[in-house]
Specification:
With 114 residues, this protein is mostly helical. It has six helices and no strands. The two termini are 29 Å apart.
């Protein structure tokens, strides 16, 4: 968390949690749309079947390190950036889930046994 003297940390842009996390597939989808590449064409070029491409681009499947490297090689989108986005998406989604959110709250209140 970034802190500045005299500034509420919640008011610093880098400290704000987005309302809805961005799945890295959205970035890839916007890029291929901008370039005029269809999902079918991308599927053929990268060697990933179209249903998987569709799930990746619609946020229904996570971007793995292998997929990130494939998109880096074919589209020039940095693999590390896609992986950071996926990690942030996963963390925020888990924290906001009812089951995991409650479990994490309970765990944070427990004292560790030495």
């Amino acid at each position: 968390m970034i802190t500045l003297k005299g500034v509420d940390p919640r008011m610093i842009a880098n400290n704000i949690t987005p309302y809805k996390p961005t799945h890295p597939g959205e970035v890839i989808r916007e890029e291929i749309e901008y370039r005029g590449i269809t999902q079918r064409r991308l599927s053929v070029q990268v060697g990933i079947v179209q249903p998987i491409i569709n799930e990746l681009l619609n946020g229904q499947r996570p971007i793995t390190s292998r997929y990130a490297l494939i998109f880096e090689a074919t589209l020039g989108i940095e693999a590390e950036m896609l992986m950071r986005m996926q990690m942030r998406y996963d963390m925020q989604t888990i924290r906001e889930s009812k089951v995991w959110g409650e479990r994490l709250k309970q765990l944070s209140k427990r004292e560790l046994i030495p």
